[in-house]
Design goal:
The protein contains no helices and six strands. It is mainly beta and about 80 residues long. It is globular. The termini are far apart.
Amino acid sequence: ETKRSPHYGVQRTIHVYELTTIDQVSRSPEGFFSDIQTKLIVTVTTKPDGSFNLRLPPGEYSVFVEEPKGLYARMQPL
């Protein structure tokens, strides 16, 4: 078993929205998102190692990570 270093990961705020498409957000030239038009389900701050735990009903969600320049997500075409 591999032990994780206590310095592994980074603390961030995570925003979980209803499933969101690229047409439902604004995108900055740097690739960060804002003005998300779907419903925010929950916001949670990770532990210092970057881990987090959420209990959500079954379904599809979009997860955005809060960075200094805006929200980041890897958007997939639907």
